[in-house]
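Handoff note, outgoing to incoming analyst
You'll be picking up this chain. Sequence as last confirmed:
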Amino acid sequence: MAKKKKAAPASSSASAEAKPATLKDLLNPEVLDKLKAQANEMKAAEARQKEEERKQAEEAKKAEQKRLEGNFEYLLENSSMDWKKFK
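Most recent structure output, in case you need it:
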C-alpha cells in the first residue's frame, strides 16, 4: 500500500488572515434555507404539542374538580366548619 502524502502546511500569515470555513459557508444557500425552514417547522410543531398537552391537563383538572364537587364526602371534608357566617 502506498502511503498518503501530507499536504504542506499553509503559511502562518495566510492562516491568521483567513477565518476557518464554517458549515454555513460551505453549504449551498438553498440547503441552508431548507434546513432553517425545517427547524422552524419543528419548533412550531413542538409548541403546538406543548399547548395541546397543557390544554389536556387543564381539561383533566376541570373534570376532576367537577367530579369532586359532586362527591358529598369530599365536600364535607373540605368545607369550612364555621356555620355562623351562613346565618
